[in-house]
Each structure stands twice: as structure tokens, then as C-alpha cells.
């Protein structure tokens, strides 16, 4: 069974429609833009951001015979923890240009400048200078400079201070050679939300500081919550800028992909589970409820469930236990603190939850000392709706078998 997270190879008609219109809007906008035109493809994980951007890339490729549209694809998460992600973006663009034009001297010189001074632009320069650069490019008032910050500005190496302007000039010349007089460079930044929020902001700010050229258009696939989280961490305490305001300054066009409906999610996931459970409505209701209809959580659950199922069959675990196993696995994944406390109580010699008539989880959560768990409405609801029929757990030997199995995932 495949658990990859790549784009859908057969996107629906709606994605083709989205791609056609977004491609058209981008072509019109970049002809009028004063700087780089940025389009945010917003959606949660699994909503189809990558699929849509691949469709858009294909639309531009179909135009390339008559128009000078060059496309570059960048996966920022591949560089997370290895090097500065924003630096990797710029190097990726320069390498792509270098390979096609074979202007190795010019490109390598630019890359060497970036390596020599680039980190200084974000890490070695005082925050005051970075504020000035961002204020100039974003139009955001970043607060009053302190006296010591003003003094620091005069002490900064002029080479460092002028890096942004010098690199921007060189970059524009290179892009002009790459796409010709009437051409455009289209850059796709995929899965930016897989990076740390701080690194995601660095990528957006690098576009404004280094790559803000009217012949460039950026499609950025990201979950907005990651950007907003990064803004709160970096700016909100001292600069009073919200994530919404930040995104409005960084991205000219927002496009939102809707989350999957319960039925769409079910159909998408059915191919990832064994035939026995594909039409088991009780099982699906439990899985969707237990994963809050979140495709990432649902895939994670199915991956673990399929693994445990393969291990359980050869050792003779009865089929009737599988729905109960699924229930325990969902509790373990979604409510780990509760699960740890439950196991601790169950393993006690004088455990109070051993009762062959009442569901173990129901009995445990209603202990007076478990008020912190009783205040979790989602947990309470999940235990209540899964405490009957085939998912009820009220026999000690059944739970012992299940707890041994869930250790392997």
C-alpha cells in the first residue's frame, strides 16, 4: 500500500479550472507588476496544494513555445536543518539558470557573493539594519530605533550594508539573460509549511530582499497557520504586527483550497486499508471522528493500523478484536497523556478498571481524580460514541493483547 504524500497524478476537473485561471491572472499581473508578483496557494495538509501547483506549472509549460516562461521548482523542507532555507532557495534558482545558460562564471560569482555575505544579511547584521531593509521593502513600520541601534548602523561594514542592492542588480541582469526581453521566471515554492515557522518567514523575506524583480512570479504553497505562528513568535510581542497584516504585505494574491469533505476523505483513504474494512461504516465513523477529519492524522492512523494488522494475523489474533484495536490506537495517537495514565492504572495489581460489564475507558475517565481529562470535550465524546458494540472493551485478556500490539507502531 502506498503512503506517499506526492501530488495526485490524476487531478480532478476543478484543479484544471483553478490552474487555468491562476495562470491567466499571473500572466496579466506580472505584466503590470513593479516587483515580484507573489501568489499564495493556501490550504491545510492534503488539500491539494502541490497538485494544483503542478497543474499550473504544466499550463506555463504549454505556453513556453510562444512565450518565454521559465519555471523552477523548490522544495524548502529538503534543506531544513542542513542550511539556511532562504539561501537554498536563491542557490537553487541560480543553479537552474546556470545549467541552462552555461554562464558559469557569472552564476558562480553570484553564488559566491551570496555565500560570503548572505548569512550576514540575516544573522550578523544588527536587528536595526534588518528592520530598515524590511521596512523599505515591506512597507511595515517596524518601530523606533534605539540610540545604540543607530550607532551600530554607522559601524556596519559598507559591503554588508550594500549587499542587498548589489545582489539585486546582478540578479536582475542574470534573469534578463535567462528569460530574454519579454520573458518571465516562474518559481514554485512547495510545502513551505513543512519548515519551521521561523524558516518559512525567512524565505518570504528573502524574496522581498533579494528577488523582488518584476520578471519573477512566485507561487507559494503553504498553510497560513504556519506563517501566522512565525509572525507571533518573531514580531508580535515588540512590533504589534499580526499574521494577517504580514501576509497581506508579502503576498499579492491569495487562493484558498478547501479541506476535504468527510465523504471525499473517506474515498481517498479507502484505498489505503485492507478490503475487510473498506465498507465497515462503524469503523469509518470511528476513524473520521478520532482523527477530526484531518487527512494527515487519518493517514498516520491507517499506516499504523495496517502495520499492526499484518503482525496480528500470523499470531492468530481474532478478527473481532480489530475494531477495538483501532479504537485503542486512535486514543494512543490523539490523547497520549490520557493513554499513559490509563495504562498505568490498568497495569496495577489492584486496578479499579477491571470490570467485565463496563467499558474500561469509560470507567477510567469517570474517576474523580481525572477531572483534567473530563474537561477535554473531544476525548469525552470519542470515548462515549465508541463504547458500544464492536469497539467496547470490557475484557481484561482482550485489552492485554491489544496493548501488546500497539507497542510495535
Structure description:
There is one protein chain. The chain is an alpha/beta fold and 409 residues long. It has two domains: 13-256, no CATH class; 262-406, no CATH class. Helices cover 59% and strands 7% of the residues. It is built from 20 helices and five strands. A five-stranded parallel beta sheet has the order 2-3-4-1-5, with helices on both faces. Strand 3, helix 9 (197-210) and strand 4 (216-222) form a beta-alpha-beta unit. Helix 3 crosses helix 9 and helix 9 (197-210) packs across helix 10. The chain is elongated, with a radius of gyration of 27 Å.
Low-confidence stretches: 120-130
Helix content: 55-70%
Biggest β-sheet description: 5 strands, parallel
Terminal CA distance? 16 Å
| Number of separate domains | 2
Shape summary: elongated
Taking Cα atoms only, what radius of gyration do you get, to the nearest Å? Answer: 27 Å
Helices and strands, with pairings:
Blueprint: H1 13-30, E1 37-42, H2 49-63, E2 69-74, H3 85-101, H4 104-124, H5 127-138, H6 147-155, H7 158-161, H8 163-179, E3 184-189, H9 197-210, E4 216-222, H10 224-239, H11 243-250, E5 253-256, H12 262-270, H13 281-290, H14 295-312, H15 322-334, H16 336-346, H17 360-365, H18 371-374, H19 377-385, H20 396-406
Parallel strand pairs: 1-4, 1-5, 2-3, 3-4
Helix pairs in contact: 1-2, 3-4, 3-9, 4-8, 9-10, 10-11, 13-15, 14-15, 15-16, 15-20
Structure, briefly:
It contains 20 helices and five strands.
Considering the chains and any ligands shown, give keywords for the structure.
409 residues, 2 domains
Amino acid at each position: 500500500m502506498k503512503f506517499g504524500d506526492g501530488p495526485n497524478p490524476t487531478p480532478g476537473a476543478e484543479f484544471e479550472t483553478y490552474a487555468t485561471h491562476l495562470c491567466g491572472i499571473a500572466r496579466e499581473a506580472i505584466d503590470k507588476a513593479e516587483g515580484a508578483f507573489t501568489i499564495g496557494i493556501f490550504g491545510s495538509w492534503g488539500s491539494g496544494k502541490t497538485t494544483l501547483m503542478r497543474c499550473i506549472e504544466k499550463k506555463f509549460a504549454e505556453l513556453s513555445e510562444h512565450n518565454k516562461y521559465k519555471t523552477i521548482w523548490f522544495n524548502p523542507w529538503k534543506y531544513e536543518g542542513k542550511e539556511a532555507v532562504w539561501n537554498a532557495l536563491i542557490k537553487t534558482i541560480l543553479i537552474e539558470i546556470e545549467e541552462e545558460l552555461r554562464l558559469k562564471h557569472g552564476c558562480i560569482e553570484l553564488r559566491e557573493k551570496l555565500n560570503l555575505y548572505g548569512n550576514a544579511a540575516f544573522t550578523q547584521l544588527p536587528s536595526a539594519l534588518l528592520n530598515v531593509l524590511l521596512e523599505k521593502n515591506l512597507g511595515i513600520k517596524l518601530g523606533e530605533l534605539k540610540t545604540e541601534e543607530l550607532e551600530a548602523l554607522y559601524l556596519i561594514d559598507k559591503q554588508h550594508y550594500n549587499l542587498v542592492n548589489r545582489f539585486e542588480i546582478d540578479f536582475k541582469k542574470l534573469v534578463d539573460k535567462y528569460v530574454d526581453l519579454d520573458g518571465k521566471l516562474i518559481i514554485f515554492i512547495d510545502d513551505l509549511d513543512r519548515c519551521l515557522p521561523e524558516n518559512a518567514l525567512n524565505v518570504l523575506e528573502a524574496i522581498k530582499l533579494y528577488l523582488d524583480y518584476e520578471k519573477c512570479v512566485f507561487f507559494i504553497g503553504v498553510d497560513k497557520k504556519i506563517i501566522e505562528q512565525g509572525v507571533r513568535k518573531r514580531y508580535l510581542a515588540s512590533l504589534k504586527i499580526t499574521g494577517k497584516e504580514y501576509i497581506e504585505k508579502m503576498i499579492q494574491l491569495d487562493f484558498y483550497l478547501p479541506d476535504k469533505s468527510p465523504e471525499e476523505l473517506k474515498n481517498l483513504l479507502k484505498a489505503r486499508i485492507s478490503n475487510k474494512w473498506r465498507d465497515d461504516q462503524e469503523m469509518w465513523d470511528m476513524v473520521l471522528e478520532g482523527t477530526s477529519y484531518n487527512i494527515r492524522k487519518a493517514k498516520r492512523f491507517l499506516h499504523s493500523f495496517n502495520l499492526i494488522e499484518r503482525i496480528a494475523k500470523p499470531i492468530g489474533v481474532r478478527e473481532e478484536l480489530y475494531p477495538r484495536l483501532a479504537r485503542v490506537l486512535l486514543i494512543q495517537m490523539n490523547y497520549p497523556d490520557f493513554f499513559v495514565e490509563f495504562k498505568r492504572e490498568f497495569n496495577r495489581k489492584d486496578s479499579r478498571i477491571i470490570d467485565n460489564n463496563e467499558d474500561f475507558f469509560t470507567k477510567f475517565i469517570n474517576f474523580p481524580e481525572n477531572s483534567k481529562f473530563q474537561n477535554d470535550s473531544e476525548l469525552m465524546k470519542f470515548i462515549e460514541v465508541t463504547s458500544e458494540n464492536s469497539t467496547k472493551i470490557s475484557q481484561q485478556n482482550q485489552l492485554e493483547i491489544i496493548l501488546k500490539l500497539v507497542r510495535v507502531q
